[in-house]
Amino acid sequence: MKPAAIAAREDASVAEPAYVLEDQVGHLLRRAHQRHAAIFQEMIGDAQLTPLQFAALVKLNDLGEVSQNELGRRTAMDAATMQGVIKRLLARGLIDRKPDPEDRRRVVLSLTADGGRLIAAAMPNGHAITDETLAGLSDAERRAFLSLLKRLA
Amino acid sequence: MKPAAIAAREDASVAEPAYVLEDQVGHLLRRAHQRHAAIFQEMIGDAQLTPLQFAALVKLNDLGEVSQNELGRRTAMDAATMQGVIKRLLARGLIDRKPDPEDRRRVVLSLTADGGRLIAAAMPNGHAITDETLAGLSDAERRAFLSLLKRLA
DNA sequence: ACGCGCTTGTTTGTGTACAAACGATTTTCG
DNA sequence: CGAAAATCGTTTGTACACAAACAAGCGCGT
Question: Looking at strand D, which nucleotides approach a protein CB closer than 7 A?
Answer without folding.
Answer: 7-13, 15-21, 24-27
